[in-house]
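Following the same procedure, backbone shapes were mapped to integers, yielding the entry below.
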Amino acid sequence: MFGMGMTEMIIILVIVLIVFGAGKLPDIGKGLGHGIKNFKKAVGGQEDDDEAAKKEINDKK
């Protein structure tokens, strides 16, 4: 993975733990996951469920 071995990944994880603390890691992971999900939707041209529902309501009027 990106030419990194297990040792390099552990070092990066330790640095992230020191900088952000263990309590913030779930929030960082959640934010990163949402960002990736939104990026995939934008690239794939998929619409958000809320936007699709709004379009259906407007089309019925």
In short: The mean pLDDT is 81. The chain is about 75% helix and 0% strand. The longest helix spans residues 25-44.
